[in-house]
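hey
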């Protein structure tokens, strides 16, 4: 009789436990990260009698959760990549707003300035035309400055986001470490603390959305979290601190570091493949740096081209003088690594604005030689490495002069050269007087009254600073095929130089630092005299040269190791190329974000299909075990009835 009652009691407990786990599943059907739980039952085993083995009912072994480590890890990893892609795409969309097209763009402002020189050339003495040029110049420098400040604001936003993200990760890591302790404490019970495990998995998934982690389970039930290819974020019940540390070179930038044992160890950016922090670092270290350098390169190039041409003309001053600079830009910077042990000071200046590249450079000293690496493509510059003597004297690379100015380096010392990074933000229009615009050419051509040919001036202007304004150049053609003799004479009539040449249609005649281009054809005995300009009010030679800069490719030329010159771009083409480069990155990032988001959704769906709660299934099981519970109660009721009958028979 007691065995029947025991069977009923065990059955009721087992079915009640199962109903409880079903009810818990239903209650948590919409709880994020919850894994469906199931009561595990086993037969209690048989009892031997002379008539055979009689069953003793059912035992509750444990409560398990529906969990697949592979699917859970895959879901967290996919979500980490999606977070990385979406973060970078979001930052790039903000960057794209800096490089706008149309009337608000830098390209339009540059075009307006160059076009204003045409109006000044039409009437070089007109004060209003000159004032328009200065207004356009101020607008251009203002747009460069505003764009540079926008990039600084983006950098500030990235730094703040990184600090916030690392603080969040540290808080989550502390919770994982605390759960590790609790789970380890329950390890000896032989039963899994399912809700704690779900909670820990959810915390790990949240951490992965900020930075991808590798999880390694331990025998005590805890799980270790590692970042950057083996640096421990959580180990057992201890959590290390993730920090947004100052960049070894640039204090305005932040890098990721992990504090272990009181020591900050930088986490290599290349070792972080997912999470919003990785997206921020990718944007900061590559996209934002490239954009800043593209902007700076254009600022250096257009200011250099206009200042150079301005210096080759005469202003309206009394007396007239060669033009003063129109713009100033931020100077190149040298940033020593904070780990340097030497005291060397390396300087860098722009020596040829047409060859300046949109890149930072790193100088590395190995104890004997200096290697210079272009960081945009991680390639050594032509001629690298350089000896200590060469660098002390100064080396010219890619439009820059790099020189060891003072001090002594130690082996392993490194220096970051930011050649154009701050150029745009610090761009200014430094010429304020309209009369200071050098519209006039410093030399004027006159043709002999008895000339027989049809030659006239197409253009005349200084091309370099070797022009001697005290000299007059006289040309006499000696044939109808363009042969000529030339001489230069000073103010006293003394001949200071002579020579011969042959004029070719479309090619300039170059003497004394100026170039003369002709329309028409000169004949034998024709003469041309190029004299210093005496009246600047009506001369527009240099204004025409300034206006013609819109056709000159002065941005980003390169000289290959074999001496081949790779032409640069015009300012319009350079800006269009920069806009295109940023646009391609935005498009690629948005595409990657869409793909990774879809993959993350599919991975999470696969995990949920395995671990999630199906309400239809739980409802069916609820009815099933309700009926089983009622049947168990009926067994107990029958046993009670039989027991009562037995008592009555014994009492009678």
């Amino acid at each position: 009789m007691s065995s029947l009652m025991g069977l009923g009691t065990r059955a009721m407990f087992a079915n009640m436990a199962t109903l409880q786990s079903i009810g818990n599943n239903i209650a948590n059907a919409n709880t994020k990260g919850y894994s469906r739980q199931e009561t595990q039952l086993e037969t209690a085993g048989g009892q031997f009698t002379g008539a055979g083995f009689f069953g003793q009912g059912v035992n509750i072994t444990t409560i398990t959760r529906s969990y697949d480590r592979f699917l859970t890890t895959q879901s967290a990893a996919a979500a980490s990549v999606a977070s990385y892609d979406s973060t970078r795409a979001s930052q790039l969309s903000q960057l794209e707003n800096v490089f706008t097209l149309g009337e608000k763009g830098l390209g339009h402002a540059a075009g307006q300035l160059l076009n204003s020189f045409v109006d000044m050339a039409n009437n070089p003495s007109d004060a209003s035309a000159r004032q328009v040029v200065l207004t356009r110049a101020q607008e251009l420098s203002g747009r460069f400055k505003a764009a540079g400040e926008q990039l600084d604001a983006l950098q500030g936003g990235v730094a703040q986001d990184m600090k916030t993200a690392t603080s969040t990760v540290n808080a989550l890591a502390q919770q994982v470490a605390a759960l590790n302790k609790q789970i380890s404490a329950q390890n000896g019970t032989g039963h899994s603390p399912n809700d704690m495990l779900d909670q820990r998995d959810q915390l790990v998934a949240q951490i992965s959305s900020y930075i991808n982690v590798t999880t390694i389970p331990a025998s005590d039930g805890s799980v270790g979290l590692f970042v950057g290819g083996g640096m421990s974020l959580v180990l057992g019940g201890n959590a290390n601190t993730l920090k947004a540390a100052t960049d070894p070179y640039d204090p305005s930038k932040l890098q990721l570091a992990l504090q272990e044992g009181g020591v900050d160890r930088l986490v290599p950016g290349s070792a972080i493949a997912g999470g919003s922090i990785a997206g921020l670092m990718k944007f900061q270290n590559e996209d934002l740096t490239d954009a800043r350098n593209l902007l700076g390169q254009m600022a250096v190039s257009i200011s250099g081209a206009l200042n150079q041409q301005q210096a080759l003309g005469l202003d309206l001053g009394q007396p007239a003088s060669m033009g003063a600079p129109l713009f100033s830009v931020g100077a190149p910077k040298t940033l020593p690594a904070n780990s340097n042990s030497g005291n060397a000071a390396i300087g860098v200046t722009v020596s040829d604005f047409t060859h300046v590249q949109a890149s930072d450079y790193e100088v590395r000293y190995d104890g004997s030689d200096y290697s210079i690496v272009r960081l945009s493509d991680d390639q050594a510059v032509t001629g690298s490495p350089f000896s200590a003597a060469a660098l002390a004297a100064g080396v010219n690379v890619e439009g820059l002069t790099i020189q060891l100015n003072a001090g002594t380096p130690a082996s392993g010392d490194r220096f970051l050269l930011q050649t154009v990074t701050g150029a745009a933000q610090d761009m200014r229009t430094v010429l304020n007087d309209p009369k200071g615009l050098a519209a006039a050419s410093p030399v004027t051509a006159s043709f002999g009254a008895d000339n027989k040919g049809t030659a006239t001036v197409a253009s005349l202007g200084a091309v370099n600073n070797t022009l001697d304004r005290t000299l007059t150049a006289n040309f006499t053609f000696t044939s109808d095929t363009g042969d000529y003799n030339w001489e230069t004479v000073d103010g006293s009539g003394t001949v200071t130089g002579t020579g011969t040449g042959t004029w070719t249609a479309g090619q300039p005649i170059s003497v004394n630092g100026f170039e003369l281009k002709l329309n028409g054809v000169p004949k034998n005995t024709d003469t041309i005299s190029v004299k210093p300009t005496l009246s600047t009010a009506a001369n527009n030679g240099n204004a025409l040269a300034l206006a013609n800069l819109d056709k000159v490719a002065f941005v980003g030329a390169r000289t290959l190791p074999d001496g081949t010159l790779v032409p640069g771009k015009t300012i319009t083409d350079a800006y269009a190329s920069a806009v295109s480069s940023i646009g391609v990155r935005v498009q690629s990032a948005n595409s990657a974000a869409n793909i990774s988001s879809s993959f993350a959704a599919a991975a999470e769906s696969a995990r949920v299909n395995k671990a999630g709660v199906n309400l239809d299934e739980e409802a069916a099981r609820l009815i099933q075990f309700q009926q089983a519970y009622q049947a168990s109660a009926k067994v107990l009721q029958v046993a009670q009835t039989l027991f009562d009958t037995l008592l009555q028979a014994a009492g009678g």
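Residues 333-419 form one domain. The mean pLDDT is 90.
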